[in-house]
Design brief:
Blueprint lengths: L4 H17 L8 H21 L8 H19 L1 H24 L3 H4 L3 H18 L1 E3 L2 E7 L2 E3 L2 H24 L4 H20 L3 H19 L2 H21 L1 H11 L10 H13 L22 H33 L4 H25 L17 H24 L2
Antiparallel strand pairs: 1-2, 2-3
Helix pairs in contact: 1-2, 1-3, 2-4, 3-4, 3-13, 4-15, 6-7, 6-8, 7-8, 7-9, 7-14, 8-9, 9-10, 9-14, 12-13, 13-14, 13-15, 14-15
Length: 405
Amino acid sequence: MALLIWPSLILTAGYGYMVTFVPRQPGWQPAYALALLLGGFWGVHLILRVTRHGGDQFLLPLAASLTALGLTFLFRLDPGLAYRQIIWTILGLLVLIVVATGFRDYQRLEQYPYLFLSLGLFFLFITVLAGTRIGGAKSWLTLGSFRMQPVEAVKVLMVMYLAGYLSDKRELLVQGAGRISWGPLLVAVAMAVLLLVLQRDLGSALILLVTFLAMLYLATGKLRFCVAGGALFSLGAVLAYLAFPYLRARIAVWINPWADYTGAGYQVVQALISLGSGGIFGTGLGLGYSQVIPAVATDFIFATMGEEMGLMGSLGVILFYLLFALRGFRAALRAPEEQGMLLAGGLTVLCTFQALVIMAGVSKLLPLTGVTLPFVSYGGSSLVISYLLLALLLNVSAAGREAKP
């Protein structure tokens, strides 16, 4: 319970900044927004305690702290988006409660791996056919004024499929008799990656493929499978580089964004300037200039955090994700059976590797991808699915604690 004090302090400090420097939005009261969020986080904690859930008590405070940081900077960048993010946060917490209490027996869910695969491929196929192109990627579905990004749910669905399939076929995959079992697995992953490439969502394709290789290693313990998968990925990346002009342009921007710093390289250049301007301890909240970066509230919010909190603040955000990974892998190691181990391990890799990809893209360590920073960036689809992922991790950790003598 004491760990929830940290996100509460972050939200309170953000409230102080908001009422002092941010113009009040019509129809909204900052105090009500603060009370709603604090009540949401503490309410979830109390519900889990009352229902004797037994999940890892570090996971919720870590996710809450990241969300609180994200909201603080969203209020600084765009109060309108921040108010909407509050609604998405409450919805995400409701999803967490429903999944954590109503679907606590995750083994029953894992009995239907092909259902998760079918849903995932269906969402990807519909997005390819009827999706809306935003920021270069055709990864959005628009229904009137409502817009969602199905790929966020697809990544979790694919992890659930892989956990069920790999745990069921593990012995066959390891032994020579498993050659027949490789076919459906490789076809499923290849179709998902291909549909993501057709959407030009290369970041999600990379995240899904790395998650698959990590889960394959967890299931079989055979490093050669991962090496072979990495070699195939490298070959596919070279072929994609030769086939798609937009990919060549993105790589060129990554190598030298200054060659077109007023055009294609503008976002990366401004992000590097923001990160460099922050120094060790940052410029202070509200004293940066990262608002000039396009899509700063979604893809580049880490640049704002780096500028206004400095290197120390950036390392603090990274530490939050490392701690989240530590607790997630701990839940995987203590899972009572292989399905839980694969599910928790896959979800942990999915979340933390996505965070690595976007933070590395903003700082030019990797080519820039249009994925969100989990629990932090603005985006309803990403935030709700992140809390769904958190609920599944809590369920696996609870099962491990109950199975412990």
